[in-house]
Please model this.
Amino acid sequence: MPYTFFMMVGKGDTPIFELEYYTDPQKEDKSQLKHFIIHAALDNCDEAVWTNPAFFIKNIDRFNEFNVSAYVTSGYVRFLVMQDREPSDSTKHFFTEVNELYLKVLLDPFYEVNSRITSASFKTRVTQLLKKYFQS
Model:
């Protein structure tokens, strides 16, 4: 059963949004390392941004069975996905759709840039995208 952890990190390494998705209750025990793995991958992401002109970085880090992929927006907000399988094209499609959702959040006049996203509808839509792209 798949395990996926998604995190959005803003400027100054500020966590903006995070969501954990798993269908196997035993994966919860392994998820304690998620922040350690994601923050280690942030360093690799920062280095890769200068050498890679693409927004999507398929596999920037690996820790045991977990692979981390990244997507860097034009505003330098980093989307990171940690999953227990090899990244595929579905990861890129997931990032693209989440970026569209994030742009809609940025258009909200009441949203303060680089602050936590607390919208329940945003969380629901991201959860639906996680199920769509990472459930199989």
Summary: Strands lie at 3-9, 15-22, 56-63, 66-72, 78-83. The CA atoms of residues 104 and 122 lie 10 Å apart. The chain has a mean pLDDT of 84.
